[in-house]
Amino acid sequence: MTKLMLALAADRKGATAIEYGLIAAFIALAMVATLPNIRDALSAKFNTISNALQ
User: Fold this and answer.
1) How far is CA 8 from the centre of its chain?
2) How many CA atoms does the CB half-sphere of 35 hold within 13 Å?
3) Whole-model pTM over 0.70
4) Predicted local distance difference test score (pLDDT) of residue 11
């Protein structure tokens, strides 16, 4: 039983997977926070171009 506990404590694969999951979550959070601003800026730019063409 002690050998099993030591083997599980030395295994770092789960920690790496959790770290990658946290990185992906932070990237998704950053995208959710910035995409509305980008959408509004692009919409305003296209409206300006559309009005200039009319």
Assistant:
1) 30
2) 6
3) no
4) 67
